[in-house]
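[Discussion] Sanity-checking designs against the backbone

I'm trying to build intuition for which residues belong where. Below is a structure token string of 189 positions. I'd appreciate it if someone posts a full sequence so I can compare it with mine line by line.
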């Protein structure tokens, strides 16, 4: 066993063995917390609010508030501002030790990060003119744009340029009709 795995067993350690889903086990372990009373000198990790109402002391015991420490008062009122429970610090699975945050990763998140990585590689490859599988379609389209622009502006033609010219002609007619209809210029042509 290497040293990185031995570090996981230092200190106050509990081991949980399971054949179940690791994420479900971590969530179940996190549910179990035990309340603990306040102690002198400790700062509570949460805001402590004493609810209004009867505190269970009769009027003859009001001297109690004059000398009692707030920690003792909270204990008397049954308020427990601290909690203790197990915290999953590391997960061991199939010979790998990793952080429990890895269990929160979803398939959608991983796909999003992978797509972002592919996009960055594609951008870099396009910027330095280096062909990759991800950049090849973009390079082919970019290479096609110049001959297509020349064909559209001149009499030069090839089969795909003819389709684009037809589409542009129809689009220009449609745009012209819309323009004249919108601005009431139809009768003034």
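Best answer:
Here's mine. Compare freely.
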């Amino acid at each position: 066993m290497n040293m990185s795995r031995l570090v996981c067993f230092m200190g106050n350690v509990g081991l949980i063995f399971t054949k179940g889903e690791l994420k479900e086990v971590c969530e179940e372990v996190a549910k179990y917390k035990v309340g603990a009373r306040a102690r002198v000198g400790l700062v509570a990790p949460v805001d402590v609010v004493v609810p209004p109402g009867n505190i269970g002391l009769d009027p003859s015991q009001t001297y109690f508030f004059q000398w009692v420490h707030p920690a003792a008062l909270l204990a008397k009122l049954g308020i427990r501002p601290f909690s203790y429970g197990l915290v999953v610090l590391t997960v061991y699975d199939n010979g790998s030790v990793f952080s429990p945050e890895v269990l929160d990763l979803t398939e959608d998140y991983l796909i999003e990060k992978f797509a972002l990585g592919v996009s960055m590689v594609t951008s870099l490859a396009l910027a330095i003119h280096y062909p990759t599988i991800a950049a090849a379609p973009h390079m082919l389209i970019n290479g096609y744009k110049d001959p297509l622009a020349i064909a559209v502006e001149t009499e030069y033609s090839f089969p795909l340029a003819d389709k684009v010219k037809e589409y542009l002609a129809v689009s220009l007619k449609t745009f012209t009709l819309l323009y004249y209809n919108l601005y009431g210029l139809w009768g003034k042509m």
